[in-house]
Design brief:
The protein is α+β, with helices and mostly antiparallel strands. 60% of the residues lie in helices and 10% in strands. The protein is elongated and about 135 Å long.
């Protein structure tokens, strides 16, 4: 048996060294990469690899992101898909190694005595047989079919890993954006409630003044119209708050419910705009890395399909003991062995192999176009997020000036109304401009914060890997073929 194993090892090693894997080897496609971003920020900081959400300086937001990374269902689903891909890789590459099997047989059989050839009286009937056999088979991967399939499976595993990182990237950005949106809605609700309380007091005073003939009924109804305008805005804001809380709860892996609050939208610190060059996006973005690994997998499938045109060489061997008497089963004369080889190959397959090659080549073209599209889409995301942030900053500054102007306008209008210089309609006009501008300011401030979140999401960065590590339990086993580095 040892001799057979040595022969199998030597022959397979020679075949492996002499063999060449058919099909194209992967080379990264040439890409047209812009030299710089069109809307690059001059005072950007090197913060792309940091845990950017901590720059908001809100411990509640930090804890919510940690909770989401630990409990989000989509992250757990992505982790399960990685385990599935790892199992496929292990199964795919197993034929590279010798396949060892064992069998044991204990059988008692009686033959008919009325057959075409009568049994000799010297032949025992019934008969007993015992057999213990070990066997080995080994396919010589002369044309690289198994190696190409393994290459494809390993690339698919890495693509699944990058898909998980993409889920993590989207999750962190979604939690931060939802929390910012929630705090912006809280500010709008607070403004609406304060405005409603002020209008209610005005209505109360005007009704008293009308009772004693100081103001007309028209003034009372004008004040009441202001009150109802503010009151009608509150239910819509409260509905948005509840829906945002429910959405955020699901991201955290909770059932829908209330969300704890930290700093207000006015207290949050504005993070730095991250710096970077376009080429870094190719190394950071999980979706680009995933698309490239899918291209690697599709490219390897071409070689695996083309290898089917060539013969398959398999070495087999067996060694064991066989005896009609159990007591003699493990004695020298009971020894049996065999070894040999087989060669099988196609002569006519009716286009079956050609069809597989055609599918593999078409799949590679599709994966190549998807990879190129992912790269272009990534650059578009970065450009859009950069310009959106710059425009939101300009809009925020203008909205702040507008609110200050409306506040001054409302103040002066009330003073002139109390002095008898203008009718109450002037006050009404001023406050009708002030209330919506304050709501718009809260919305714009939240949108400005969210635009920074979009920049970090679009650029990717080392923070994705750091966040991903928090989602992996300590007892998770090493997965073959999994790389820690992109």
């Amino acid at each position: 048996m040892k001799r057979i194993i040595r022969i199998l090892l030597v022959m397979h090693l020679l075949g492996f060294l002499a063999g060449c894997a058919v099909g194209p080897d992967y080379r990264r496609p040439d890409l047209t990469i812009p030299a710089s971003y069109r809307y690059d920020v001059r005072d950007a900081s090197d913060a792309a690899n940091t845990e950017w959400w901590r720059q908001f300086e809100d411990p509640v937001l930090d804890s919510l992101i940690d909770e989401a990374l630990a409990n989000n269902k989509n992250v757990k689903i992505a982790a399960a898909k990685i385990e599935q891909a790892a199992g496929i890789l292990i199964q795919t590459r197993s034929p590279i190694f010798p396949q060892l099997n064992y069998s044991g047989v204990a059988e008692r059989q009686r033959l008919t005595e009325y057959g075409a050839t009568p049994l000799s009286s010297a032949v025992p009937n019934p008969q007993t047989a015992y057999q213990v056999l070990g066997s080995a088979s080994w396919e010589i991967d002369l044309w690289g079919r198994i190696r190409r399939l393994t290459e494809s499976a390993q690339a698919s595993l890495l693509a699944t890993e990058y898909a998980r990182r993409g889920v993590v990237l989207s999750l962190v950005a979604s939690v931060a954006s939802s929390y910012i949106q929630l705090r912006g809605l809280d500010e709008q609700l607070l403004l609406s409630q304060k405005t409603l309380a002020a209008y209610a007091e005005t209505v109360r005073i005007f009704e008293l003044q009308h009772k004693y003939g100081v103001v007309s009924r028209m003034n009372v109804e004008q004040a009441r119209s202001q009150y109802e305008t503010a009151a009608s805005a509150i239910p819509g804001i409260e509905s948005q708050i509840a829906q945002t809380e429910n959405a955020l709860s699901l991201l955290l892996g909770r059932n829908p419910g209330p969300i704890e609050r930290g700093k207000s939208i006015l207290e949050l610190t504005m993070p730095d705009v991250p710096s970077g060059v376009p080429s870094q996006v190719l190394e950071r973005r999980p979706d680009i890395l995933q698309a490239e690994q899918q291209l690697v997998a599709a490219n390897a499938q071409i070689g695996a399909a083309r290898a089917l045109y060539f013969p398959t060489i398999t070495l087999t061997g067996g060694y064991g003991q066989a005896s009609a008497d159990l007591s003699n089963l493990f004695k020298g004369p009971a020894r049996v062995w065999s070894y040999g080889g087989s060669v099988t190959g196609p002569l006519f397959a009716g286009g079956a192999i050609y069809g597989q090659v055609l599918q593999a080549e078409s799949g590679q073209k599709e994966a190549l176009l998807s990879y190129q599209a992912a790269v272009q889409s990534a650059f578009g995301d970065v450009e859009n997020s950069l310009v959106a942030n710059q425009m939101y900053i300009v809009q925020l500054q203008a909205q702040e000036r507008l609110v200050r102007a409306n506040q001054e306008y409302s103040k002066l209008a009330r003073l002139q109304y109390k002095g008898g210089y203008v009718p109450y309609s002037t006050v009404l006009q001023a406050e009708q401009q002030l209330f919506p501008s304050e709501l718009n300011l809260a919305q714009t401030r939240a949108a400005t914060f969210s635009s920074l979140v979009s920049i970090y999401q679009a650029m990717g960065g080392g923070w994705v890997m750091e966040a991903d590590r928090r989602t992996v339990p300590a007892e998770t086993k090493e997965i073959p073929g999994k790389s820690e580095n992109p």
